[in-house]
Amino acid sequence: MFGLIGMPLLTAAIQTEALANNEVVSGIANLPSPPGNHAKGAALADVTSGRILFSQRGDEPMKIASLTKIMTAIVAIEHGRLDNAVKVSVRAAGKEGSSLYLKAGEKITLRNALYGLMLRSGNDAAMAIAEHVGGSVEGFAFLMNRKAEEIGLTHSHFMNPHGLDEQGHYSSANDLAKLTVYALRNPVFKEIVRTRVKSAPNPNEEWDYKWVNKNRMLTMYDGADGVKTGYTKQSLRTLVTSATRDGQQLVAVTLNDGNDWIDHRNLLDFGFAHFPLTSVTKAGDPIAGYPFKTSNSFAYPFAKGERERLEIRLTPLREGTAHYNLGYRGQLNFVLNDRVIGTVPLVAGEQEQQESSGKRTELHKPSYTQASPATSFETSIRTTLKALFLQGGT
């Protein structure tokens, strides 16, 4: 039973303050200093919660080179049809920089173009994808900036899909961490960036394309599973990597870092060692003293001593409201250092469901769906319903 034993249980109004989905960790007692690095800007984030665990000049806008393609990929995945053919234009085929050596007039599926984009950093693929999905490079840049606004990237602006240096094209370490956290929650993106080698049909030759991922972390760090390398003369070396250990996935970002492979290894080691993902509640846990149960699971990367300071505040819903009639009975707010770090909706418990229907009726199939930080009950419900739809829940 999820009885909140040994933890403060408070009844409070739903928090109305607009809270960011991420926070920069600071002032934690007994937390060892993060490892030094050579980056101009850096960030480390937990994918499940979106919590930023470390930030160094994290909000400073900088040149990001081919890390741009993280945004290009997720926008294309969300707006395009993966098995549709992308026709390569003369403009796309002639784009300078790293290339797949696509030919003008050649057709390639959007899915394969995305593999070439993320594994080999093909600028020709980036252009072809942008023209296919957005109608033009300018149209695609509009979609990129709209997505940036949607997910709360406040220090970013995109002018092109490839990341070559251009006035007005920039992002920050924190924004790139947030973007990558968002993208890694998409299963198509997640599968592409973890791929080490990809073959694809080559209509111009008797042999297939064979793309080997440029991300050396995939072979040099245990658990590495993404994401993207980058370099231009102005940005210098840029890198975003991800790794998963014991069910926890972290994202590391460095900008303008000449020693990035080693720095990423040290940042990821620091995160796994000092911010382990800890389960607080699981879907279906009953609430002591109430005929409710949790609809989602909630897990969070606590530093040493933080779990003991977590407050769990329950807010019941009044009968007769629209959400109540849908089966929701309230929500749990998880509060750390006076900030809501997550919410989980509550649903009718087994006894109430049996009394109201004469038989056991599950609102959804129990699963370990981790609740992301949310600022309102409506946001929590939308997250829950989306998860149920994707899982085939009732």
Helix content: 25-40%
| Radius of gyration based on Cα positions | 23 Å
Major sheet details: 5 strands, mixed
**Multimerization status:** single chain
The helix/strand series, from N terminus to C terminus, equals EEEHEHEHHHHHEEHEEEHEEEEHEEHH
The span between the termini is 24 Å
CATH topology annotation of the largest domain: Beta-lactamase
Indicate the CATH architecture of the largest domain: 3-Layer(aba) Sandwich
Features:
single chain; 394 residues; alpha+beta; Spermidine Synthase, Chain: A, domain 2; Beta-lactamase; 5-stranded mixed β-sheet; 23% strand; disordered C terminus; Peptidase_S11_N; cell shape; peptidoglycan synthesis; cell wall biogenesis/degradation; carboxypeptidase
Summarize this structure briefly:
The protein is of the alpha+beta class and 394 residues long. Helices cover 30% and strands 23% of the residues.
Explained architecture:
Substrate binds at residue 228. One of its GO terms (biological process) is peptidoglycan biosynthetic process. One of its GO terms (molecular function) is serine-type D-Ala-D-Ala carboxypeptidase activity. Residues 32-257 form the Peptidase S11 D-alanyl-D-alanine carboxypeptidase A N-terminal domain. This is D-alanyl-D-alanine carboxypeptidase. The protein has 394 residues and is α+β, with helices and mostly antiparallel strands. The chain folds into 2 domains: 9-23 and 278-391, Spermidine Synthase, Chain: A, domain 2 (Roll); 41-274, Beta-lactamase (3-Layer(aba) Sandwich). 30% of the residues lie in helices and 23% in strands. It contains 12 helices and 16 strands. It has helices spanning 68-79, 90-93, 110-120, 123-134, 137-150, 173-184, 187-194, 217-220, 260-274, 322-325, 350-357, 377-391; strands at 9-11, 41-46, 52-56, 85-87, 107-109, 197-200, 209-212, 224-232, 236-245, 248-255, 277-281, 292-294, 298-301, 311-316, 328-336, 339-348. The chain has a 5-stranded mixed sheet with strand order 1-14-15-16-12. The protein has a 5-stranded antiparallel sheet with strand order 3-2-10-9-8, with helices on both faces. β15 (328-336) and β16 (339-348) form a beta hairpin. α3 packs antiparallel against α4. The radius of gyration is 23 Å and the shape is globular. The two termini are 24 Å apart. 46% of the residues are buried. Mean pLDDT is 87; it is low at 1-24, 357-375 and 387-394.
